[in-house]
Design goal:
Oligomer: single chain
CATH class: Alpha Beta
Number of domains: 1
Strand order of the largest sheet: 2-3-1-4-5
Radius of gyration: 17 Å
Helix content: 55-70%
CATH topology: Rossmann fold
CATH architecture: 3-Layer(aba) Sandwich
Structural class: alpha/beta
Order of helices and strands: EHEHHHEHEHHEH
């Protein structure tokens, strides 16, 4: 089973992905983590990524796609992936579909954590007090939320058309949200 999980920054994607990974024995693919791993391992691709990011540029869809393909093509991960925050645009969504077809796989479920901006702001302020992350302030939170919402619409519509999209209210306690998600996954497995 391959799953895509979406949600604006602060929606709890990472937390829910980790719970899904543990419960259903999947492998989490977070593009941010993949990029950092390549840089840390000082691979030739990692050096290229580091150079791009130091210049303040976004890593191309092609590079991200190449990283994703490494996992999709690996038999260990076959039909056992959760894509955390990927695809981020329509080009990536279409590329992911073609990659999965190439390796005889598919997306089984697309989860969208729906959390209003007011809740996101509250969470980010709480998180700031705990973790002191530099990207956690209200202005940045609002901008990231709006950018996310605008960019993700075509991707959400793409998955809505294939009847894979399930919207989950991401406002409640972590365990409540996790139980809803588990129910959706069980429904597909069953």
């Amino acid at each position: 089973m391959n799953i895509v999980i979406f949600g604006p920054p602060g929606a709890g994607k990472g937390t829910q992905s980790n719970l899904i990974v543990k419960k259903f024995k999947l492998h989490q693919l977070s593009t941010g983590e993949l990029l950092r791993k390549e840089i840390k391992n000082k691979t030739s691709l990692g050096n290229q990524i580091s150079f791009i990011m130091k210049d303040g540029n976004l890593v191309s869809d092609k590079i991200v796609g190449d990283l994703i393909e490494k996992y999709i093509s690996n038999k260990i991960f076959k039909s056992r992936l959760i894509f955390d925050g990927y695809p981020r645009n329509l080009v990536q969504a279409e590329y992911l579909e073609s990659l999965l077809k190439k390796y005889n796989q598919k997306i089984d479920l697309v989860l969208k954590l729906s959390v209003p901006l007011e809740i996101i702001k509250k969470r980010i302020l709480e998180r700031k007090n705990l973790e002191k992350r530099t990207d956690d302030n209200e202005d940045i939170a609002i901008k990231r939320f709006q950018t996310y919402e605008n960019n993700i619409k075509p991707v959400i519509n793409f998955y809505k058309q294939s009847n894979l999209l399930k919207v989950v209210n991401g406002e409640g306690p972590i365990t409540e949200i996790s139980d809803k998600i588990s129910g959706l996954i069980e429904g597909i497995k069953g």
